Amino acid sequence: MEKGWVKLASASANQAEMIRVQLVAHGVNAIVINKQDSSYLFGEAEVFVPHDEVILAKRILDEENA
What CA–CA distance (Å, rounded) separates 10 from 27? Predict the structure, then answer.
């Protein structure tokens, strides 16, 4: 992962994509890196946001999931 990006969450691939969509809808840059094994379907995906958007991203997720 490039410098300046912070892992915000780990989840299943579908859940991580839903988190990314929520964040992008609120103007936060977010990417998903899928670390799930394609053969055996174990592992998780990780959601990353830029370092300077971490607080905003956490606030958005807290409000959306409250």
Answer: 20
Per the CB < 8 A criterion, the answer to whether 35 and 43 are in contact is yes
Residue with tokens 């606030």: 59
Tell me the per-residue pLDDT of 6-41, one tens digit each, with 9 for 90 and over: 999 999 989 999 999 999 999 999 999 988 776 666
Helix (H, G, I), strand (E, B) or coil at 9: strand
Q: Are 48 and 35 in contact (CB under 8 A)?
A: no
Residue 61, φ and ψ in degrees, nearest 5: -65, -40
All domains in the chain, ordered by first residue = 5-64 (3.30.70.1530)
